[in-house]
């Protein structure tokens, strides 16, 4: 940008992996708001359980000064859809060729197994190469249990995952794909699998 007196300022944002999944979460949250408003589903982002140890007070209210994570969180989202319990994790990777298994923690894997055991719907939404894929929980577990790799190959995600279509309302219509996979119906037409 050119400023008066020929002053040139440049801005470089430092590379941070902290919020790389926020765009995906924003899209999911807006979609969930749409599903709730249209009475399609009740799906919510689960808060991370924290314990507060130190609080101060200001004219604007309480300020948490010190807190800790009470327990590991399970998956990002849960709720009800068409009479079924639904839960999923949303992940973004900048890796172009594979999805690191380290992105899904041991307690989350155990939780995926538990949801499947109780016949709930569980999956991962993985944003990779600017495409969002739905990977079923049982396909994820099958890959993890039968491969020695520390990551899921992108070819496997393209083969076994389902592309989630982008739209205006909702912005990320993942329930369309859930209908196709779990309820064997597609009210919109053909679902793209690759």
Q: What would your notes on this structure say?
A:
By secondary structure, this protein is an alpha+beta fold. It has one domain: Trna Endonuclease, Chain: A, domain 1. Helix content is 28%, strand content 30%. The strands form three sheets. Strands 1-4-5-7-8-10 form a six-stranded mixed β-sheet, sandwiched between helices. Strand 7 and strand 8 form a beta hairpin. The radius of gyration is 20 Å and the shape is globular. About 7% of the residues have low confidence.
What's this, in brief?
The protein has 194 residues and is α+β, with helices and mostly antiparallel strands.
Give keywords.
194 residues, 5 helices, Trna Endonuclease, Chain: A, domain 1, alpha+beta, six-stranded mixed beta sheet
């Amino acid at each position: 940008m050119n400023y008066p007196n020929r002053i040139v300022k440049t801005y470089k944002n430092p590379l941070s992996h902290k919020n790389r999944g926020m765009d995906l979460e924003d899209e999911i949250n807006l979609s969930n708001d749409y599903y709730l408003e249209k009475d399609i589903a009740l799906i919510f982002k689960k808060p991370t359980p924290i314990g507060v140890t130190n609080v101060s007070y200001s004219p604007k209210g309480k300020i948490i000064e010190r807190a800790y994570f009470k327990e590991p969180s399970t998956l990002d989202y849960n709720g009800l859809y068409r009479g079924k319990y639904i839960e999923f994790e949303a992940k973004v990777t900048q890796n172009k060729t594979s999805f690191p298994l380290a992105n899904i923690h041991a307690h989350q894997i155990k939780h995926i197994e538990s949801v499947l055991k109780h016949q709930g719907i569980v999956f991962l939404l993985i944003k990779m190469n600017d495409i969002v894929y739905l990977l079923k929980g049982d396909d994820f577990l099958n890959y993890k249990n039968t491969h020695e790799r520390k990551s899921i190959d992108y070819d496997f995600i393209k083969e076994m995952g389902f592309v989630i279509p982008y739209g205006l309302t909702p912005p990320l219509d993942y329930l369309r794909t859930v209908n196709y996979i779990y309820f064997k119906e597609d009210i919109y037409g053909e679902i793209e699998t690759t």
